[in-house]
Amino acid sequence: MHTLEKTLNDSLAAQNNPLRFTPHYDSLWCETDDQTLFLALAELLRRVEARVCMISAYAKDEAHELVYHFDCGGVMVNVKVYVADRCVFSITPLFKSADWTERELSEIYGIALQNHPNPQRLFLDDSISQSVLDEYYSLSSMMNGRVSETLWSKVKAQKEARHG
Length: 164
Prior knowledge:
Layout: H1 2-14, E1 22-24, E2 27-32, H2 35-47, E3 51-60, E4 63-72, E5 75-83, E6 87-89, H3 99-109, E7 112-114, H4 139-143, H5 148-163
Parallel strand pairs: 2-5, 6-7
Antiparallel strand pairs: 1-2, 3-4, 4-5
């Protein structure tokens, strides 16, 4: 893992990219809120033959945190991207394995994908408004004890508004 960390960080430094990977247990992590730096990082990971395993999303207020999980020679490489405007560059042109997961992010969280080759919905019919999913609460929100009182207040208020 140390060799991969050095290779990635040396390549980033050579590109004058300020991002750096740091080890955390048995994986490498990097964080950014800069879409251009994220795309350059994805291109670097493609060059070292990483593959996208999964993309996780966490809704945080009006923003999102996306974590792109890559496998690179048996080492998990994770890139956390902060998305404030519900828009992210697609990495599907670089990694075909990102296609479905990115489209799922778009469909479920309403995140717009720039430059995605096939932005069609996966499961929901096109006649269903994107805002219908905004009425639901994610499991991560429900499980967070700090927001449970606020969450249930919102649920009760919406129920009363719908049913009078």
